Amino acid sequence: MFDEAFNNMDDERIGGVLEFLRRLPLQILIAAPPDKIQYISSFVEETLLIMTDEKVSFAERYYNGTV
């Protein structure tokens, strides 16, 4: 699991790291801030948004810029 690994990276570096990770025989779980989703989502098979509403947390699928 990578927790906010891309928080301080620009898009070019994010892309390079994600290309490298895709070549590894691993299943990767990435937790990232919302402003990085547009860079990360194109490199992964599935993107889930985890959100909270007062006392309830829920997940929604993210599809090319829409929920």
Tally of individual helices: 2
How many domains make up the 3D coordinates?
A: 1
Estimated structural class: alpha+beta
Inertia-based shape:
globular
Strand content: 15-25%
Strand arrangement, largest sheet?
1-2
Q: How many beta-strand elements?
A: 4
Radius of gyration: 13 Å
Mean pLDDT: 86
- In N-to-C order, the SSE pattern is EHEHEE
The profile of the biggest β sheet is: 2 strands, parallel
Outline the structure in words.
- The protein has 67 residues and is an alpha+beta fold.
- It has one domain.
- The chain is 25% helix and 24% strand.
- The chain has helices at residues 11-23, 37-40, and strands spanning 2-3, 30-31, 48-53, 56-61.
- The strands form two sheets. Strands 1-2 form a two-stranded parallel sheet. Strands 3-4 form a two-stranded antiparallel ribbon.
- The longest helix has 13 residues, at 11-23.
- It is globular and about 35 Å long.
- The two termini are 23 Å apart.
- The mean pLDDT is 86.
Which helices and strands occur, and which strands form pairs?
Blueprint: E1 2-3, H1 11-23, E2 30-31, H2 37-40, E3 48-53, E4 56-61
Name the features.
4 strands, two-stranded parallel ribbon, 2 helices, 67 residues, two-stranded antiparallel ribbon, alpha+beta, 25% helix, 24% strand
Give me a quick take on this structure.
The protein has 67 residues and is α+β, with helices and mostly antiparallel strands. The protein has helices spanning 11-23, 37-40; strands spanning 2-3, 30-31, 48-53, 56-61. It has one domain.
